[in-house]
Amino acid sequence: MNKNIVILGAQWGDEGKGKIVDCISSDAEYVVRYQGGHNAGHTLVINKKKIILHLIPSGILHKNVIGIIANGVVISPSALIQEIKMLEENDIIINERLFISNSSPLILQYHIEMDRAREKKLGIQALGTTGRGIGPAYEDKIARRALRIGDLKNTKTLSERLKKIVHYYNYQLVNFYQHQSIDYKMILNDLLSNAKVLFNMIQDTTHILHTAIKNKKKIVFEGAQGTLLDIDHGTYPYVTSSNSTIGGVMTGTGIGPKNINTIIGVTKAYSTRVGSGPFPTELFDKIDKHFSHQGNEFGSTTGRKRRTGWLDSVSLCRSIQINSISSLCITKLDVLDGLDEIKICISYKNIYTSKIISFPDINEWEHIIPIYETYPGWSQKTLGIKKIEDLPYQARAYINRIQEITQTPISIISTGPDRSDIIFIHDIIHINKSITLNTI
Ligand code: IMP
């Protein structure tokens, strides 16, 4: 049997997917990024050392794993090379262990300038993007004008097309956004020197993956961002520009749904969001301070303070549906240590009609308030606990309640930032919803 696992975010990103991918990929042969770009920030702590990856799949930290950046990812060649260097400085040699799709669209300087110019113009209505050029790069893909990784192999056509695109962007940047123009020669020279470094990594990654599937190799697909930031299913327009939901695995790699054996949705034991947009359970009180401080809730890509709130089971249930999540992984349980009480949002109410809303439509988000259930907290430390029976009973009751509300088994609990701070509850491959939700 194949053992192909998807790990994806069930909230607004930053759920701690990187650590989970790292933990379950020690026996994997391939770890694959399928969407997003270097807007992601996957923080890993190994032997007390912090490593932040933005583009390269987290599984690369295991020496036997082959990393794949598939066609759904938008790639900044300079960011990728910088990351390869950072890994090498940390003695993680990726030589012949990293392949990038020839179909991945490139992120170049004009995308970054455009992203920033647009955000500036939007003023207080800004989306709060990471400023990495992600949106404009995906726009180019859909508009069929993108330069792609495979284009790096043909210097002549590359330089001709680049010239036209730079002209197109400069016109908008200067005339519409009153922004500085960009220099074609500089982009071309950078690109040509970066192309030399990346040349041997460029492959037909769809073919690599199908060969791996045929040979029953274990593949882990590593999601970036989260379900509520998905371009189609998220809180539009406050979303990223890719499909961070399950569909992104298929379109972003070229494998089929039947090639996936299990889908793990990762959620924090509470909620966070960076950037603007709806966040029903958001807190502004001392609990926000507690989450920020105990959970170190500052963006690993931009350093921005993350907004924090209670766990929102309404949006979590929606994520479970959209992604066909087989089981949940709860991260940062230890951040709840020391709270007198803990809440879960169990429904949304329209403030004007008092009606309970199953899920808000695009204009309804501003008019809803969360309805909570409250549970007792615990004073003991759960940081680093490795066995479910060692958790305080209040923590187990909280976990059980999440299972009950979502009708989804919880297979993994993360109790701290380190690789070893983890509790495995179920066999993640064979788990499915028809099993009885055992009381933990
Ligand atoms: P973009 O992806 O840079 O275009 O940003 C669009 C929205 O997605 C903004 O609200 C960002 O803060 C958010 N976002 C993008 N990447 C991440 C991530 O990795 N974690 C959390 N939020 C993200």
Automatic annotation (TrEMBL):
Cofactor(s) this protein requires = Mg(2+)
Sorted alphabetically, the keyword list is: Cytoplasm, GTP-binding, Ligase, Magnesium, Metal-binding, Nucleotide-binding, Purine biosynthesis
* Enzyme class, broadest EC rank: ligase
Per its record, the protein catalyses: IMP + L-aspartate + GTP = N(6)-(1,2-dicarboxyethyl)-AMP + GDP + phosphate + 2 H(+)
- What biological-process terms (Gene Ontology) are attached? 'de novo' AMP biosynthetic process; IMP metabolic process
Q: What is its main location?
A: cytoplasm
Record keywords: Translocase included? no
**UniProt cross-references to InterPro entries, sorted A to Z:** Adenylosuccin_syn_GTP-bd, Adenylosuccin_syn_Lys_AS, Adenylosuccinate_synth_dom1, Adenylosuccinate_synth_dom2, Adenylosuccinate_synth_dom3, Adenylosuccinate_synthetase, P-loop_NTPase
State how the cofactor is bound.
Binds 1 Mg(2+) ion per subunit.
GO cellular component terms, alphabetically, are: cytoplasm
- Annotated binding of GTP, by residue: 13-19, 41-43, 306, 332-334, 414-416
Which Pfam families does the entry mention? Answer: Adenylsucc_synt
> What exactly does this protein do?
Plays an important role in the de novo pathway of purine nucleotide biosynthesis. Catalyzes the first committed step in the biosynthesis of AMP from IMP.
Provide the protein name.
Adenylosuccinate synthetase
At the highest ranks, the source species' classification is: Bacteria, Pseudomonadati, Pseudomonadota, Gammaproteobacteria, Enterobacterales
- Gene field: purA
